[in-house]
Design brief:
Radius of gyration of chain A: 21 Å
Oligomer: heterodimer
Helix content of chain B: 25-40%
Largest sheet of chain A: none
Helix content of chain A: over 70%
Structural class of chain B: alpha/beta
Shape of chain B: globular
Number of strands of chain A: 0
Number of strands of chain B: 10
Shape of chain A: globular
Strand content of chain A: under 5%
Structural class of chain A: mainly alpha
């Protein structure tokens, strides 16, 4: 079974991985806000943000190309809006939207790829994010694995019965894929219900307690402050130059 | 006379599509007892077990350790009865074995230190203490089953209910599991099609058929009576 690559990346042992999640979440929020509100000097600020992100990925020994490829998952959504802006005569807004969403996705991915999810959720909880939202996030994340595993089981079963021999773009292949997708979600729903039952049977009552205990040390504070200040300074400086 | 831990009277349940899964089941489990639930697929065994801690709620009366299975008692009842589900992979949902086994104790309000102690003790009982830091999905089926049992043992239940515990286990794995379960002091309900396993572990068997209990007695007697269900040769001669 191949498991979600982000989970594997998040369990690395580099200094960046070892930082308290809050030391990564706070600068991330600063970066996202700075990026979302940037207008003048957006191209230069986006390049600076990309440089910071690449530095973080290199420090955490995350494959750069693979991370960039995974962040592109947001593009099908944002490109539709960008295209709409372009067609309505506002090309600059469309470009800004695409750039901001891609760089933001890459920044979020960098934090998620370097922090195991239970620690990340614990960090968010300590930053007073509503626990209901965090529980939903934890379930969504767990069920991504369920869908991935069920998909792999079905793919193997289909390949064993000659599915690979069919041409990918034939109408019958599309029909089969559509049917398989429906079955995949039905099976995943069944597995998810089983997991929920198992959680209830062991005392789950809406809030997940974990073993992870976080310690916000001096180096975490230094990192969070330095990166947050650097982001704000870069944004202000580049805006002034533009 | 031994204290009854579970008493079920006239339990009936139908699924949403109208299919009646349980049609009036009576059942009793005493302290220290191990009962095998036998019967063909779809006869209602797993549905029955899901009623014992309120995962499903049908009509009729169920009492676990003297408490009626009702919404107000569910938290207490789920502390008394631990269910090991057939699909261990679904039962293990936390990122590491230790976190998974500590899930139950943490949910019950134990401190992190107490939860880790409980989890490590449970992992030691099932011989999996060396796997504490591993991801559950990297374990073999037999190891996953052991960890799933540890997850339930860590909550220190009075009753263990195991649904098809030998599924995916090879014969040495089945033997090791039987030895492990024999050494545990809890009362047990074992849903199984594995007759040698039931004979090794249980003193009594209940046979489910079409949502009803159609026979009960010693495992050997029930197996003899329904031999054609378990034995291919007997089934062929009957056919």
């Amino acid at each position: 079974m191949h498991h979600i690559v982000l989970d594997r990346w998040s369990r690395g042992g580099t200094a960046f991985h070892q930082l308290d999640p809050r030391a990564k979440i706070v600068p991330l929020l600063v970066l996202l806000i700075a990026l979302a509100t940037a207008q003048r000097g957006l191209a230069a600020f986006s390049c600076a943000a990309l440089a910071l992100i690449v530095a973080a990925l290199l420090t955490a020994r995350i494959p750069i190309a693979a991370a960039f490829a995974r962040a592109a998952i947001v593009l099908p959504f944002t490109l539709v809006f960008a295209l709409t802006c372009w067609l309505s005569g506002d090309l600059a807004r469309g470009e800004a939207m695409a750039v901001k969403s891609y760089v933001s996705a890459l920044a979020v991915l960098t934090v998620v790829a370097t922090t195991p999810l239970p620690s990340l959720l614990r960090g968010l909880e300590l930053l007073r994010i509503p626990s209901f939202l965090l529980t939903v996030t934890q379930f969504v994340y767990r069920y991504l694995f369920v869908i991935s595993e069920e998909g792999q089981h079905m793919s193997k079963a289909a390949a064993a019965r000659g599915a690979a021999e069919r041409h990918w773009f034939s109408p019958s292949a599309f029909r089969a894929a559509a049917g398989a997708l429906g079955v995949l979600f039905a099976r995943s729903y069944g597995r998810a219900a089983g997991i929920h039952d198992a959680m209830l049977a062991r005392g789950f009552h809406g809030h997940i307690h974990t073993l992870s205990r976080l310690r916000f040390r001096a180096r975490d504070a230094a990192f969070a402050s330095a990166v947050s200040l650097a982001v704000v300074a870069l944004r202000l400086a580049l805006e002034r130059i533009a | 006379m031994k204290r009854p831990l579970i008493e079920v009277t006239n339990l009936r349940f139908s699924y949403g599509d109208g299919r009646a899964a349980l049609k009036g089941v009576d059942f009793r489990l005493d302290e220290g007892e191990c009962v095998a639930l036998l019967g063909p697929n779809g006869s209602g065994k797993t549905t029955f077990v899901a009623h014992l801690n309120g995962l499903l709620q049908g009509e009729g009366a169920i009492e676990v350790c003297g408490m009626p299975v009702a919404r107000r008692n569910l938290a207490a009842i789920r502390r008394k009865i631990g269910i090991v589900f057939q699909d261990s992979e679904s039962q293990l949902f936390m990122p590491t074995v230790l976190e998974d086994v500590a899930f139950g104790p943490l949910q019950r309000g134990l401190s992190r230190e107490q939860a880790v102690d409980r989890a490590m003790a449970a992992l030691k009982t099932v011989g999996m203490e060396d796997a504490a830091g591993r991801a559950p999905y990297h374990l073999s089926a037999g190891e996953q089953k052991r960890v799933a049992i540890a997850g339930v043992l860590a909550t220190e239940p009075e009753i263990l209910a195991l649904d098809e515990p030998t599924t995916f286990l090879d014969p040495p794995g089945q033997r090791a599991l039987a030895e492990l379960l024999l050494a545990l002091p809890q009362a047990k309900i074992v849903v199984t099609h594995n007759i040698p396993f039931a004979l090794a572990l249980c003193s009594r068997a209940v046979f489910f058929e079409g949502g009803l209990v159609s026979a009960e007695g010693s495992v050997a007697d029930v197996v003899r009576r329904f031999a054609w269900q378990f034995d291919l040769k007997a089934a062929q001669s009957r056919g």
